[in-house]
């Protein structure tokens, strides 16, 4: 059937009609809000490269958790900024570390009304800013790093975390973390693996926020090459085999094709991370009034969902929760 019998515009005539046939539904249930907790702070501090986002002081986390629950946001992902960093990132698995303490306080405050996820990586805790321990030649020692990541994940689980999210991109880390959790009795703690994480310049504002830029070199020896797409499927396959419960693609908007391929290939619960640079880009354009913030944010989140993401990690979660 062709024009003039077929007219695609008929179902676009009113808002109600458009809603009836909408294929993609973005809801607050899809959102995960990232927060930074800085152990050195007494009160929260704005992050200059991410307008509207803050480094929280440890004393702010309870109120923050309450606010998220009130907004209906189901989950938070925690990033810690420790007071001391060393070569091996020891404070990452300190039982009274910044993240471990925050987990206990949030659980005490809101219980199971908020899913607490923790980012498991070394870069916020190492003096050199790499996601693992360094060998003499300056590259990251994969297998030595696995032990540290496993200790970090177990220490988060001991503090009561609901889910861990390794973001380091070492080979074998999902398996190492799964085994360590299971051996410590945490068989019920799921892993959301940063499965296809690209070496991206869109992480720039995050690294300012978390003081986690590598002091020498870059992360291209462990994060993925942006030119590759088949490799993302291979990475994701391996993480699933090693025990990942949720797989993640990161960044989101520049990698919508990857989200689509991962979802189609594995039909796993799939998350996408709308990263700091994606956030700051929209914020900057909105501040200059080049773009309408609300409509662009909702369009970007909807496109990520339409590509195949079930869950979206986004710094816009609070705004979106109010708008939806
Ligand atoms: C830690 C980590 C990073 C992000 C999430 N976990 C930074 C990095 O890999 O350098 C980036 C998140 C963002 O840009 O919003 N490895
Ligand atoms: Zn890292």
Key traits:
binds zinc ion, 324 residues, 10 strands, TIM Barrel, 10-stranded mixed sheet
Describe this structure in words.
The protein is of the alpha/beta class. It has a single domain, classed as Aldolase class I (TIM Barrel). 38% of the residues lie in helices and 15% in strands. It is built from 11 helices and 10 strands. Strands 1, 2, 3, 4, 5, 6, 7, 8, 9 and 10 form a 10-stranded mixed beta sheet that branches. Helix 3 runs parallel beside helix 4, helix 4 crosses helix 5 and helix 5 packs parallel to helix 7. The site of ligand PBG has 11 residues, from helix 6.
Q: Summary?
A:
This protein is of the alpha/beta class. 38% of the residues lie in helices and 15% in strands.
Question: How are the secondary structure elements laid out?
Answer:
Layout: H1 15-20, E1 31-38, E2 45-46, E3 54-56, H2 61-71, E4 75-81, H3 98-110, E5 115-120, H4 142-159, E6 163-166, H5 173-183, E7 192-197, H6 204-210, H7 230-242, E8 246-250, H8 256-266, E9 270-274, H9 276-287, H10 293-307, E10 311-314, H11 317-323
Bound molecules: ligand PBG and zinc ion (ZN).
Ligand PBG is lined by residues 119, 121, 123, 131, 167, 203, 206-207, 219, 275-276.
Bound molecules: ligand PBG, zinc ion
What share of residues are in beta strands?
15-25%
Number of helices: 11
The CATH H-level superfamily is Aldolase class I
* Mean pLDDT across every amino acid position: 98
Query: Which geometry do the CA atoms define?
Result: globular
CATH architecture: Alpha-Beta Barrel
Largest sheet entry: 10 strands, mixed
N-to-C order of helices and strands: HEEEHEHEHEHEHHEHEHHEH
Structural class: alpha/beta
Cα separation of the termini: 37 Å
Low-pLDDT parts are none
> At the third CATH level, what is the topology name?
TIM Barrel
Number of strands: 10
Helix content: 25-40%
The Rg value, from CA coordinates, equals 20 Å
